[in-house]
Design a protein that fits this description.
elongated; alpha/beta; 17% strand; 7-stranded mixed beta sheet; 12 helices; 4-stranded parallel beta sheet
């Protein structure tokens, strides 16, 4: 069908979300079916206001730079569409003769695309809507991994590697170090810190993820074991870790418009602070905690090349699906089994994405050590790439 295209970005940023945007624009320019190429300013919220920009006017040099620019170039939002706003969305689609609708984001964004597509279908308006995945949390259903995760995981792994050296060398001053990674419902990002560990004594020693409720007894036992063995304790936590009763370790009581807890916001401490205080109080030592928040979601200096290339590919494939007449789908990734990394795009129904959160499987978690398994590291390495090697002094004593 001949018509115009619109694309928006939603939710938190990633280092590669703009690569998906660049992929959509470049591919759209190749198809005669697509007339204007429009961008939503500040996602669906700006779209409701008719705030669109002409992306077709951007030159090749800008698109090349866009592919390696972090954050959300169009601006983002966290608006949950109300039922009575869907008619207003359709009005804007009709006003600008938009027949191709793309939204880059996580599960809430995919749900927005699904609702828009279904509403237009019910009203007899032909619209081809495709969701493009994005989240550093890596918790979307229906895909092996999500664009944005590889780069954020690389950021966490490098932070754990470098911060781990700091923890090791400062262990007589601050024997406890806790690093907090983003991850509301799943521990994929916190678990990525395990890549930094080359030898047994290397940090991180312990990783706590939302998939496994934490008890104070387990924490104390783990801390004692590591402190006795290594002389210091390096811990990584996901922001969404919980106690056995399901309450957040952070103690937060603040929630966003989608009903998701907001960690570190007013009314709650951070999980890292709580864990650090419990460990230090028990050992009778000093310690510190580190929380980088959005930096791990937009660190272009630590981008994964595989992640960036796949994000661009997801944008291209979304356009190809739409112009072929397909709709109500999300671009996903499927990995071949075996030691060699081979991955391709597939299309999954948007309804599949709303089945729940993709949490870490049991095969990736080592409960006995409060750590991850080799199977998880095999899964992660191709998405992150090699980490730099750091020197190890021989430490030969002087006689």
């Amino acid at each position: 069908m001949k018509g115009n295209l619109v694309i928006g970005q939603s939710g938190g940023p990633t280092a590669v979300i703009n690569a998906s945007l660049a992929g959509v624009i470049r591919e759209a320019k190749r198809h005669a079916e697509i007339g204007g190429i429009y961008g939503m300013r500040f996602g669906i919220q700006g779209f409701l206001e008719g705030d669109l920009v002409d992306l077709g006017a951007e030159d090749d040099a800008t698109l090349t730079l866009l592919r390696q620019t972090p954050a959300s170039a169009l601006g983002s939002c966290r608006l949950k569409l109300a039922e009575d706003q869907l008619d207003a969305v359709l009005d804007v689609l009709r006003r600008f003769d938009i027949r191709y609708f793309f939204y880059i984001g996580g599960d809430d964004s995919q749900n927005t695309t699904h609702r828009v597509v279904e509403y237009c279908r019910a009203q007899g308006y032909e619209l081809f809507g495709i969701g493009i995945p994005k989240t550093v949390d890596n918790d979307l259903y229906g895909t092996d991994h999500t664009p944005g995760y590889g780069s954020a995981a690389r950021y966490v792994a490098l932070s754990a590697q470098q911060g781990g050296r700091l923890a090791r060398d400062m262990r007589r001053v601050d024997p406890v170090l806790v690093y907090q990674a983003v991850g509301r419902d799943a521990g994929w990002l916190a678990a990525a810190a395990a890549l930094a560990r080359e030898e047994e004594a290397d940090p991180p020693h312990l990783i706590y993820v939302p998939e496994r409720p934490l008890t104070k007894e387990r924490l104390i036992a783990d801390v004692e074991r590591c402190y006795d063995r290594y002389g210091f304790v390096s811990i990584v936590v996901g922001e969404g870790i919980v106690w056995p009763d399901g309450s957040p370790v952070s103690g937060t009581q603040t929630f966003d418009k989608f009903g998701n807890p907001e960690f570190g916001a007013m009314g709650g401490a951070s999980a890292a602070m709580v864990v650090k205080n419990l460990a230090c109080d028990h050992l009778g030592v000093r310690g510190e905690f580190q929380i980088v928040e959005s930096l791990q979601m937009a660190g272009m200096d630590r981008v994964s090349i595989v992640d960036r290339d796949e994000a661009f590919l997801a944008g291209e494939e979304a356009v190809r699906l739409a112009v072929s007449g397909r709709t109500g789908l999300m671009v996903a990734f499927e990995r071949d089994p075996g030691p060699r990394y081979v991955c391709r795009t597939v299309a999954v129904p948007l309804t599949r994405v709303n089945e729940g959160k993709q949490r870490m499987p049991d095969a990736f978690l080592d409960d006995a050590r409060s750590f991850v398994t080799p199977a998880f590291l095999d899964y992660l390495r191709p998405l992150v790439g090699e980490l730099p090697r750091l020197a190890r002094l021989a430490m030969r004593p002087v006689s």
